[in-house]
């Protein structure tokens, strides 16, 4: 049996492209070829495409491409929603066509057929809830309640008016340029959902991420058990050791078992690898958003805090350097008539760096993990106290 190297190469390249596109900007990949591939996929390829279209077809074709980009990136559109439905539908269809014949199997019972349908259905329901629910739109009627619900911290949120909606912008809110509306407790605009993620649908979005992570893990494990059952039922290990004289050890059997699996069950191998990669990516997103929920922070606020802390560090360093320079000039004037210090003391004196005041992140919205999670599960706008304020 020959290893289908073309299939292996295709799977490896696909995994590299997917990981580079989704994770290339992570700090762990900084300065690596993964970051370079991400830059090419997200910027370089499009830039070269525009230059090629302009050179071959003229400025009219370039304007057409720019118009398509504006439609896809600067206004609500269902493209990624359709793509998500296609991914789920095609993947599940392939699983049904190629793997359900092995259910029930040696390690997999028959009820997994029905459990998989329930899992996909729940994921579809969470997708619909996240995509079509109100994220928490701030209107002239509800702005006063949101202002009272979320106080300004006067650090990253200050009292000001939304230049587009012409209403006061509550703390933690932001005007989404794509949806063209102010969203309370704004997290981000999700193209996959064609909707903003805000105060009212963060719970659905996080549940969507967690559920799809579990689906991918579940699918990869079930397919793995199917393959293990095939090895057991076909007695592949026994045949390799008894008839071909292969050493009964992991290092001796692994190449031959992998070769047999790639030759006979290559579709299941690709599906399991695909689901495992998606599980890793979704696991990272789940961990990130779980951290945001537990600390009562949004993605928008995390970027604001990063900018604020970086700016304050520069300010504190400038103040410390100015104070150190002033102190050194004063000491130089006072020590002008004194004997010069020893070379060693002067050397170590110059090596001292000014003390920089540390920057502390003071998130006034963090009220403890339990209360933070309760705020995500039951938003403030859906509580009785909020309704009473609205009626008043």
From TrEMBL:
Looking up Pfam families in the UniProt record yields: DHHC (PF01529)
Kindly list the residue ranges recorded as spanning the membrane: 6-28, 81-102, 114-132, 204-229, 236-257, 269-288
Keyword Transmembrane recorded: yes
Q: Where in the cell is it found?
A: Membrane
Give GO MF terms, alphabetically.
protein-cysteine S-palmitoyltransferase activity
- Please give the catalytic activity noted in the UniProt record: L-cysteinyl-[protein] + hexadecanoyl-CoA = S-hexadecanoyl-L-cysteinyl-[protein] + CoA
Membrane-related topology note: Multi-pass membrane protein
Enzyme Commission code(s) on record: 2.3.1.225
Keywords assigned? Acyltransferase, Membrane, Transferase, Transmembrane, Transmembrane helix
Q: Which family does it belong to?
A: Belongs to the DHHC palmitoyltransferase family.
The Swiss-Prot or TrEMBL note on domains reads:
The DHHC domain is required for palmitoyltransferase activity.
Protein name from the UniProt record: S-acyltransferase
Native organism is Panicum miliaceum
